[in-house]
Amino acid sequence: MERILVGIDAQESDLAPGIHAVNLAKRIQAKIYILLVKRPNSQGEAPGERNLIARLEQLIDQARSEGLGLEYFVSEGLLENEALRFIQQNAITLLVVGQPKDGGEPAMKQFRRNLENIRLRVDCHIEVVQQREASVVTERK
User: Fold this and answer.
1) Which of 17, 45, 92, 140 fits a disulfide with 87 by CB distance 3.0 to 4.6 angstroms?
2) Inter-axis angle of helices 104-121 and 79-90, nearest 10
């Protein structure tokens, strides 16, 4: 069985990777692990974090109600490090992450370096999802 890790940076407040993973898991009968990573030593919540968590919990409830196996974890650190550790400890076969929406070219270069670092250290496919208005596909019966 495929094991999908959705890595979400609490500061990005983007749910597109989670939505993508849920839709994919329905098609391939995969188990989903969602890892929400908060920055270390952050003072309070990141802007939009509370809204992100509420939307994430709705997505989790919906996925579980549709019979998908899903586990949810919260960690503190850098997404690259936390995702890498999680992949190694849980035999993850696919990592789904969102492309940074802010920060311009410097942020994209760092993002690509981080992904390359993960790719070189684990045997795991990686999918990058761009933020857009997305929704969970519900099956019609």
Assistant:
1) 92
2) 20
Reduced 3-state DSSP string for 75-128: EECCHHHHHHHHHHHHCCCEEEEECCCCCHHHHHHHHHHHHHHHHHHCCCEEEE
Q: Which amino acid is at 102?
A: D
Joined tokens for residue 50: 């509370």
Is the distance from CB of 8 to CB of 1 less than 8 angstroms?
no
CB distance 6 to 19 below 8 Å: no
For residue 101, what is the DSSP state?
Answer: -
pLDDT tens track for 94-140: 999 998 877 778 888 999 999 999 999 999 999 999 876 555 554 44
Whether the pTM exceeds 0.85: the reply is yes
Contact 15, 52 (CB under 8 A): yes
Q: How many Å apart are CA 92 and CA 14, to the nearest integer?
A: 21
